[in-house]
Design goal:
Elements: H1 11-20, E1 49-54, H2 69-78, E2 83-85, E3 92-94, E4 97-102, E5 108-113, H3 127-139, E6 154-161, E7 164-169, H4 186-189, E8 212-218, E9 222-227, E10 242-247, H5 251-260, E11 265-266, H6 274-280, E12 286-291, E13 295-301, H7 323-331, H8 335-342, E14 347-349, H9 375-384, E15 388-390, E16 393-395, E17 403-409, H10 413-427, E18 432-438, H11 442-447, E19 452-458, H12 464-468, H13 492-502, H14 507-524, E20 527-533, E21 535-540, E22 544-546, H15 564-568, E23 570-571, E24 580-581, E25 589-590
Parallel strand pairs: 1-10, 1-11, 17-18, 17-19
Antiparallel strand pairs: 2-3, 4-5, 5-7, 6-7, 8-9, 9-10, 11-21, 12-21, 13-19, 13-20, 14-20, 15-16, 22-23, 24-25
Helix pairs in contact: 7-9, 13-14
Protein name: ABC transporter substrate-binding protein
Length: 619
């Protein structure tokens, strides 16, 4: 599965905000001049279009169901969240809420909702829409599919007025300034009959209140968005009239399209391969951006698929229920070789669950705890587990050979390359491996019909979401149905630690609890984090003059914790206007606004993995 890339602010700033019960207001600069008509691109509809090549599928356009990075990135553009994050360092800034404060016991939070946000159909966006969104998640299991962990501790949500939202908690919750939930319009969503099945893709344009409006979608072809002219943030408004996320199942084809100028940006799957990046460096009119990644790349084991009430399903290999077997597999994975040979240095060797980019939560095992690459130790673990070597094969007490299947994303070349190494490494131990590369791993994954799987998630500055997907509460209610769980982990000790970190407002104490959770995940052998890939992407400088990374100093463009990349993108032919723009930084970023001529590329859909795609971020 893969990543959910939830967006949260910097850990210390976020928690300090909660403790101090402070309020923030957005600083807006003077509106910029409108685009001159003569500068518009001479393409279909006379629009300037930014085309992004993607290799991930949309799991759902419903904010209540979407978990893949592509889908959640689209929702970042089309719906406002209560808060947003500064492009420079991820600290929390106003979104739909202009300020917030908590009661002295931290059990009641009051948000002031801005009065200048409108839905794209002209109706006012109010606190009642926010209350509706959260209440629906609290009372409808289908609506809680993607982000239910955020409201599990909510006691009551009300909207005393159009500009006041009040959330009462059962106990303190440290994520109250990091509720990464798209707020939806009540007047549109109140008529939905089944939130577990409604994908929000039957009527266009889709009503939203973000900087862009979703105007078109064709499965595995394209997602089309147009600039929302009525968006409340008037300063530094998007300069491209339209964004098209175009789907390429073949990543090399996407790179070729970038070379030809058929697309403006290539995000990779989710990153460019070293060979692709190397081939693009130095090419005329192409810039390769690389920065520390916010995701981890791992192998997940099937611990036995089950529902919340304990009903077992699926056909996972029962040998993986033995911790010694799981640890043996991981001791036979040379993560240094993977970083050197597959990622060719464009990654950091994996250890803990949270990438080093988030230093407050980054954890590393002690020397005595570390499951380092050691084939002899792996063989001993298998012997201890009762799987002896016989005629070159590991055989259990039942006489059956030890053979596994691993789910592989067909669009991810890293999965395929590493799969070959695993067959070799595990084969030397006498273990058979079948690498199943398919387009949509979600189907067998949700059905529990796998033994192992290549996994990866984009981690937010606040790690609550990626921690919550391993709790018992995330298990599905019914077998083989979509759920919030990553791979069916359910453990009492882990759950206790999860609840403890959620209620802890002290940054240092909370970080310590999170690291205890990472330690548990590591020892369990359920998740083997092999690498933290860098964000490697590319764009055409003759189409995009400049674009905001996040964080500003050295960060990613695609899959940000806000909408600043696409918001800030300046067409290549535009000239600086000298005006200041509020690009998500409290101080603002200078962005010139004028437009460029771009070719409108037809169709294109961006595949996003719920947070589970390949290295797809389940966002």
């Amino acid at each position: 599965m893969n990543e959910q890339a939830q967006q949260h602010p910097h850990h210390r700033t976020l928690l300090a905000a909660g403790l101090a019960a402070f309020s923030l207001t957005a600083a807006l600069a003077t509106p910029l001049n409108p685009f001159p008509q003569e500068a518009q691109a001479k393409d279909s509809g006379d629009k300037t279009t930014l085309t992004v090549a993607v290799a991930q599928s949309v799991d759902s356009l419903s904010p209540f169901l979407a978990q893949r990075l592509l889908s959640t990135s689209i929702h970042r553009l089309t719906y406002e969240y209560l808060t947003n994050y500064d492009a420079k360092d991820n600290h929390v800034i106003p979104g739909l809420a202009t300020k917030w404060e908590s009661s002295s016991d931290k059990l009641t939070w009051t948000y002031t909702i801005r009065d200048d946000s409108k839905w794209s159909d002209g109706e006012q966006a109010t606190a009642k829409d926010a209350a509706f969104t959260f209440n629906k998640m609290m009372t409808d299991e289908g609506a809680a599919t993607a982000n239910g962990s955020f409201v599990g501790n909510f006691k009551k949500v009300t909207a005393p007025s159009d500009t006041q939202l009040v959330i009462e908690l059962k106990k303190p919750q440290a994520t109250m300034t990091a509720l990464d939930v798209p707020i939806v319009p009540e007047h549109v969503w109140k008529d939905v009959k089944d939130y577990s099945k409604f994908n929000n893709d039957d009527t266009f344009p889709v009503v939203g209140n973000g900087p862009y409006v979703l105007t078109g979608y064709k499965t595995d072809q394209y997602v089309k968005l147009e600039r929302n002219k009525d968006f409340w943030r008037k300063t530094g408004k998007p300069q491209f009239d339209e964004i098209v996320f175009k789907t390429y199942k073949d990543q090399d084809a996407a790179v070729a399209a970038l070379r030809k100028g058929e697309v403006s940006f290539v995000a990779g799957s989710p990153a460019l391969t070293p060979a692709q990046a190397a081939s693009l460096k130095g090419e005329k009119n192409i810039k390769v951006n690389e920065g520390p990644g916010r995701r981890f790349y791992a192998i997940a084991t099937n611990p036995g698929a089950r529902t919340k009430d304990g009903k077992k399903f699926g056909d996972g290999n029962k040998a993986l229920l033995d911790q010694k077997v799981r640890q043996a597999l991981f001791r036979a994975v040379d993560t240094k070789a993977i970083v050197d040979r597959v990622f060719q240095g464009h990654a950091v060797q994996g250890e803990g669950y949270i990438p080093p980019r988030f230093k407050d939560y980054f954890w590393q095992p002690s020397d005595s705890q570390k499951l380092s690459y050691d084939t002899k130790a792996a063989a001993e673990l298998l012997d201890d587990a009762g799987y002896k070597l016989k005629d070159g094969k590991r055989v259990g007490k039942d006489g059956k050979p030890l053979d596994f299947r691993i789910l592989c994303h067909a669009t991810d070349p890293n999965d395929k390359a590493i799969g070959k190494y695993l067959k070799e490494w595990w084969g030397k131990l006498g273990i058979g491996l079948k690498v199943d590369c398919i387009d949509d791993v979600s189907v067998p994954w949700y059905a529990g019909e796998y033994d192992l799987a290549f996994d990866g998630w984009s981690v937010n500055p606040d790690p609550d979401f990626v921690l919550g997907i391993h709790t018992c509460a995330a298990l599905p209610t019914k077998a083989k149905e979509s759920a919030a769980t990553d791979n069916f982990i359910c453990d009492k000790k882990y759950d206790e630690l999860y609840q403890k970190q959620l209620a802890e407002y002290d940054p240092a104490k909370r970080a310590d609890i999170v690291k205890q959770m990472e330690s548990w995940l590591y020892d369990s052998g359920y998740m083997n984090v092999m690498a933290y890939p860098n964000a490697v992407e590319a764009y055409r400088t003759d189409q995009i003059k400049s674009i905001q990374t996040m964080p500003t100093a050295a960060g990613n463009i695609y899959g940000q914790d806000g909408y600043w990349s696409w918001w800030s993108a300046v067409p290549a032919s535009s000239s600086d206007s000298g005006d200041s723009s509020d690009s998500g930084s409290s101080t603002g970023v200078v962005i010139g606004i004028v437009v460029v001529a771009l070719l409108l590329i037809g169709g294109g859909v961006f595949f996003g993995m719920r947070r589970r795609t390949t290295a797809d971020d389940r966002e």
